[in-house]
Amino acid sequence: MNLLSGIAFTTPWLLLGLVLLPILWFILRAVPPTPTLRRFPAVSLLLGLKDDESISDRTPWWLLALRLLALAAVIIGLAGPVLNPSRDQAGSGPLVVVLDASWAGATHWPTSTRQLDAELTKAGRMGRTVAVLQLTDPQPLVFQSAEAWRSRLPGLTPMPWAPSPDQVQTALADMQTIPDSFDTLWFSDSLSFEWQSDLLSAFETRGTVKVFESGQPVIGIKPATFEDSAMQISAHRSAAASDQNITILAQGRDPAGTQRTLASVDLSFSATETDAQTALSLPTELRARITHFEIQGQASAGATALTDDSLRRREIALIAGRENREGLELLSPLHYLTKVVTPSADIIEGSLLEVLPANPDVIALADVTNLTALETAETIAWVENGGLLLRFAGPRTANSDLGRKTEDPLLPVRLRGGGRSVGGAMSWGEPKSLAPFPDTSPFYGLTIPDDVRVTTQVLAQPDPNLADRVIASLSDGTPLVTRKSLGLGQVVLFHITSDAESSTLPLSGLFVEMMERLTVSSGTKSTPASVEGTVWSPTQVMDGFGTLMNADTLPGIDGPELLSGRIGPNLRPGLYGNEKRVLARNVMTTDTILEQARWPATIQVQRPSAQQEQPLGGALLSLSLILLCLDVIASLLLSGRLRNARVVAPVIALLLFTPHLKAQDASDFALEAAHELVLAHVLTGDQTVDEIALAGLRGLSDTLYFRTSIEPAAPIGVDIERDELAFFPLLYWPVTPSQPAPSEAANAKLNAYLRSGGMILFDTQDAHYARFGGTSPNGQKLRQLAAPLNIPPLEPVPKDHVLTRTFYLLQDFPGRHISPDVWVEAAPADVEQIEGMPFRNLNDGVTPVVIGGNDWAGAWAVARNGTDMLPVGRGYAGERQRELAHRFGVNLIMHVLTGNYKSDQVHVPALLDRLGQ
Amino acid sequence: MTPALTLRERSEAEAARLPPLLARAEQLAGTVLLGDHGRRRAGLGDDFWQYRPAQLGDSKRMIDHRRSARGDQQFVREREWQIAQSVMFWIDQGASMQFASDKDIPTKIDRARLLGLSTAILLARAGERVGLTGTTLPPRRGNAQVIRLAEAWSVDHQTDYAPPEHKALIPHARAVFISDFLGDLTEVETALTKAADRGIRGVIMQVLDPSEEAFPFQGRTVFESVGGTLRHETLKAGDLRTRYLDRLAERRDHLQRICNATGWMFGRHDTGHSAQTALVWLYQALERGAR
Questions:
Q1: What value of ipTM does the predicted structure carry?
Q2: B138: domain range?
Q3: Which end of chain A is more exposed for a tag (fewer CB within 10 A), N or C?
Q4: CB A765 within 8 Å of CB A806
Q5: From the CA atom positions of chain B, what is the Rg in Å?
Q6: Into how many domains does chain B fold?
Q7: Are residues B219 and B207 in the same domain?
Q8: In this structure, what are the phi and psi dihedrals at residue B53, rounded to the nearest 5 degrees?
């Protein structure tokens, strides 16, 4: 009975219907299948033939079984069977729903929301009032109806932090204000946190506590570090349950800017370990693109590790003005700089023009003065694109004319010649120490060692903007480091040498920190000391699911606080920026320990299991439907009506492939428009005009078919907003005052159509009472329609226009109205006149627009039976006019389709003459 | 609508049906004409028979001047005196003939008419007189008669199993009976005996549908004749097959016996097969009977 114990029925008495089955068996057996009626002339030969009595043709037993099974399925299905029915006892009284709502539950959030919804529904049925307490965002408890809370469910989201002691205390304090006892449902994220047990006992004193949790270990990913020329990725889980494999995805932007998975690496926890580690080696370019790592299939802030500068290796070009290859290495002007940047950056060597195409992040020029004009220009362009030019002064700088008279674009300030020495044998005074950094300086907060002394320095000319550009100065106020921004980048000048000749600064740790602040060297781990005094503003922060959001409205965070503070409402995990530096704060730090929540044995803990309550009624009813379908086929088969496969095959095919029927819609238009030459008109929305236009094009198509080698298919109307225009050589556009102006997108499409050789025939249809360019409603509408289009200068069709002779020789172009005002693209003013014919070269010599008001479609229009739809003129003259209208149509289509061929034909005598024939 | 209008409408519909039948029949007949016979039978009365001296009473117009110019005597050119045969057709127009088991197979009546008309065309070209049994269309010569035949055969009857028409049989003529012969055989026997009494010989052709030849039915079935007059219900159609085929064979034996007794020829045709073989057989059977 184990199988049956898992099944319950909502309306068990319906099962009594099963008693009917044996009765039905007898009834069905007694009735033979319905006979087939057949026409058969030779029935006269059959008369008198008796059936063999011993074989009575009854319904075969298997068909009967099929039918009974179908019926049984219906009865059982209607009785409402439920697999794994829940046997909860619903309580009464107020209910408090406690949600951890931390990032750890984000992965299972949909499940727990469903569970919560079910619990709220249950509570609603019992009429219990409910208060919801979100531990990561505690608010005073408010008891409301369960329905009210259900409607607010979608607004509950997990926070990207765990409940802090403060928040738990707040929640406990809130709870004290409630005098009544209540039951508690605790949706835990399976992680323990401080004060959890206190909170639990506080709830237990008020009523029963029931805990919901997923029970699965929570996995977090720690920030990636860069060691041994590979990225070290480690993950941590809350419980060492069993072997577990996860996949870490490195996400980033591809060159097109689209977020995609750049690399993935597998990580496996052994059964006893809670930590796992792996290394991922990627090319520098690819590595620089990584924005974050995430665990596949885990959407939580803890399973997302944002990357910052620490993973980037900058490319630094070091160029010295004095190459001293033979000298001692310690005397090399670049020695100390190389030492500073080597651990965290890739060094590029070469001449300036060689390194610029590699687009390094930083170019350091040590006492370089002699830049050529080309080098200067290219370097300026590079700096303006975001490069950092780091210059060091030196004897050459002091003795050159660089930046004397005017400010050099590649120097932050004007320089004074000669430089100065302090504290030397021949000079007065002591070597100078550094003044404290002003709070506007990027170096603000760095501790200045006492033993840093400066003996030689290049001085700046006192300029009005000098004070703004000094970011470090000596104790006597003379500038030590100056900076100016240039485009997106900046130029920084150290007024001392890069070696230990003029100061002891390169020997001190301060130099390293200064380089780091200037983002010359990065990738070293930020320490509280190195970020002392800086304020970091959040650029993007994560929500509980690990999704990045803009954080423009959040306040800035102090550097040390950012590094060591506890993640909470005031310090959200995300990306923080200071100057050019980017620092990521993740939920998990390298030493975060996750601990599985432990619940006392007295607490009822419910974990989602495979045995979810599952109604089976639907499945049974569909089973019965399938059986009945089978019964239909079997019955047909038995009665011999299924013999004709040609009847059955389409039916079965129809059943199987019904969804395919509607798949073809989209390409139908393109297929119809492109499979043959199709004339088209613009749908104006005025039904009469559209009908006439369609009939007109039909008449023109027929005329072309009969008289020329152009054989168009049936014309169609196009919606310029929706349909692709590229298929049509000609668009006939009847202008009506009521039609809407096309949207921007449609105008762009029309312009593209005109540019690519299409032609639009505008027809205002009002030539019988209005002159061209007049103020008739149609004319005004035409102006409105044509204003956004790229229409070239126009002129009335000249007597020698190719349109007058592409097929018929025409003098004028009547439609239903006779007006000489038909306008086409004007010939350029300076075209060559050959036999009175100017060459027109735009669009293969085809005018992109023809504008008139002669209502050509009206003259062309034929009804489906081939009779003319609208009268033209009077009597024979009218028929002649209609004939001329048709000829104009033929000429027009010929003109569009043949391009400059016909106009070249006109010029054949001239061409032959040129060839000397 | 007035009767005249409906008549006109109906006759137009009939006329629309006629050309295809005629055309198909002509086409079918053409295939036979190209064979080794037929040309031998030159046009009526065109064959030279003999020259005989002109006698009193011969009109001057009858004198053959080419022969007479050789001598003094005048000759008359006599042609062979050829008398045309009369061939009478009876094609079963009953509802039972309007049946085809599949849409790709022509109905029996369609095939029967095609065969009859093609034979008639062939005979008419050979100078014979063709017509219907009974009084509606006595045998006549010429192409117009073929059209009249086609007209007469474009009318469907609604009764099942029409008996052979055997009134007004011309003595010593020839006859072609085409039917499925599923009705009462005594009528056939009567007709054939009566014809034999008058010295008429001919051909009977049984046209059957493939399903009537094979009886491929299963399961509980109610069989109904096309006219709806006869019904037979069976629970297992498959069991009836052998007995049905026995009865069909027996019926054919009976027809053969009648033919043997009256000197007629008996042919069978399955509408599933090509019409041409049946036409060739029909034509040759008529020729053979003529000698």
A1: 0.72
A2: 83-290
A3: N
A4: no
A5: 23
A6: 2
A7: yes
A8: -60, 140
